[in-house]
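The protein record filed here.
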Amino acid sequence: MDRNINIIVGLNGEKIVLINDIRFKGKKKEDWKDVEIYLKEYVGEFYEIEETSEKIFISSSFPDEYAGSESRIALKGAAAKAKANAAQGIPELIQIATNMEYSENIKKKHEKDAKYGWYRYDVRFALPVYDDKSGEVCRYNIFYARMLVRHDADGRKYLYDLLAIKKETSSPLE
């Protein structure tokens, strides 16, 4: 898997996953099948949240949920493109996750796969913006998202989705 990812620290001390390449470049809309195929490369792996030392596993259901969830279908424009390209930084996004928030499972359909509830974490990532004329990177746009993790009946925590992706209105990285 060819990835060009860094973790940087912003002006306020928050960690940001810097994704240096735009892999999914759909002009009108992203090809979510390609995103799903890409995400399958993570299945079976686990990554650790630096702040809490929790291990987060990647299950075989993750690629389909990420690419086909109701929240993804509702995304348009820059937020949809951001979610597609954030797929490249999944290990680093897990690593920098902060501000854990727990909620009990209330949906019958998740009574086994989220038996012990849900965890949400804050994550930030940056994507390059290219100059139309030169094709060079002129700045990075920063995005905020909530990483959703399910706590399975097997006792493990599994990455489920990235939600609430929003472009930050602060100054972009130059």
Notes: The longest strand covers residues 137-151. Residues 77-86 form the longest helix (10 residues).
